[in-house]
Give the backbone structure.
Amino acid sequence: MALSLLAQAAVPRMALADTAPPPADRAERGAAPPERPPEPIYETVVSGLRLPRPQPDTPPVTTVIAREEIAQSPATTADELVRAVPSVAVFRRSASLVADPSSQTLNLRGVAPTGVSRALVLQDGVPLNDPFGGWISWRALPLLGIGRVEIVPSGASALYGNLALGGVAQVFSRPIGGTGVETQLAGGSFRTGEASLRLTGASSAAGGELLADVLTSDGYSPIAPAQRGPIDGPAPSTDYNVSARVEARAGPSLSLRGFGRFFHETLEAGTLFTSAAARAATYGVGARLELGGSGTLDAVIFAGNRRFEQQRARVSPDRSSASPAFTQHVPSDNQGASVTWTLPRHQLGVEHVLLFGIDAQRVAGTSTEDQASSNPTAASIASRSAGGEQQFAGVFAQDAVRVGRVEASAAVRLDGYRDLSGATTTRHVGGAVERVPHPDRSNLQVSPRLGVLVHVTDVLALRGSVYRAFRAPTLDELYRPFQVGTILTDGNAALEPETLWGGEAGAEAIAGGLTARATGFWNQLQHPINNVTLATPAPDGATRQRQNLGEARIRGVELEVGWRPTRRWKALAAYTFVDPVTTSAPGHPELVGKQFPQDPRHRASFALTFDARELATLTGEVRAVAAQYEDDRNTLPMGAYAVVNLAAARELARGVALFATAANVFDASYLVGRAGVDTVGQPRTLLVGMRFASGGE
């Protein structure tokens, strides 16, 4: 990905403007002087405090992937984009081009990776996590429409409540800067093709955007060559995105906005009778009211309808034959709203900015599984349905304080949630029906956060935060069984919420074109939900079940060094060490001391960009990931790997550019899963395309 992640955390963003003398002065000198590092400017971020603040003034560590980095990145999809940040990981190392929709997640700093995201992902302030399963549809985020991404890799429940256990990532759409059109067409390896279109229109009072994207690929064969059989082949996939948004000024103090998004994805998993599909429609409206001396009110109402479908196979040991095992249909819907009130800056001995907010969301869904038994009897299960409803509500307050060179923030939030109407209904081949209701439950959570940032000098700053965060089990974890490879994992209606106590502390320095940051973190995760291997298989054949363990310790350090010697060259080296260990597991003593599954201890990246618009823009990145384990008992290791990705672009005429990307240039082979059958990561993939832009921002 573009290596100008110099905009990370409170590291100042480097200006892109040419600082050389004007042409007349150059002519008088007879030659252009040596390029100097550009003067720093500061990115305004909002996710860490839910307030607009320059990066150097936010106590929580914040990483920004700006629009320029997105345009220069070798990434094709949003998950490839964010994975270049070492504190970021997705489940099973798989790219969304071949990953099942229910395994696409986000975890930050190694906080409990499973098929459910441990971080909240927002798109323009609206949750993107699937409300039923907690996973992330990364392909629902076309890169052409993303303005920037902000990542806050620490417990954020004090401001965002449920799902922000390990942090928050927010995707901001590009601003509607005028009337314009942008298109992008690309094609390459594995008959991969992409077409994107962005139309914008604006006047003094209103603006609108229409965004459409299609990405299709025949895919590669994900089953490891040594285990591949006649039933295994490529994993083709297709997704469609259409979204529209409008912004309008309804008066001198009132602005309105609205949006609608539709996403549809289909995926074949590379094995006969193994597929998945996801469909989502999300829509909402918002308003911002300036209250003069009383501050600003911001409100949003949103809703969505989703459907997830999955088919799994029963495979012979030699992988020479397969038959349908079951199909799942998971319709769900959600409705939510939030209101925040930001008071103007005021002095009470020191400068304060107060923020108050309230939000609520309802989620409902049911997973229905139709089974195809190979030797059915009257007692065999024909179908099983399980689901229910969840209701969430929270209220929070924050005070952001400035005293000279010190920035501090204190936030606290009270959340309540309820599990309602839960039930499992099992229908047998012989006609018998069993219905097991699950008791309604309620829970209260208090999430505080304290943060401080001290500008020791104009070069050196110190920061630290402490926090508590929580995550309620999703309807998916409570009720839906799932199969990966040959491994069947059951849900668990008795799951309790996960809670996390943690802190971070670090220093950063800025000197000319050089930036550096070091951050240490320590988290204690109580009642982590993991996919636990059972001593004996369950009656339905499951060998794993989602269960709460006792406690886990997650500690580590992040190091980043950025260098911008001239406006044309920029580089970033980053490293994250995470030590995620189970420290308590009542009933499962064999798990104590074990590393979390799917959680490598070491991740590193290096990136270099040469940007001379009159010549070309070239980006190269190296991403390295240490060994990790597939399972909770650490019996299925997956080795370390490193990949090299490249991107190049050349402007042919004003608004017309040719570009090419190469992922995994040296065709490294590495494992991404070992769930009964080994699966491998994305091989070398080449894409070539054209971009056209006229007008707009």
Notes: The helical segments are 23-29, 67-72, 78-82, 157-160, 475-479. Confidence is low (pLDDT under 50) at residues 1-34. The CA atoms of residues 429 and 577 lie 52 Å apart.
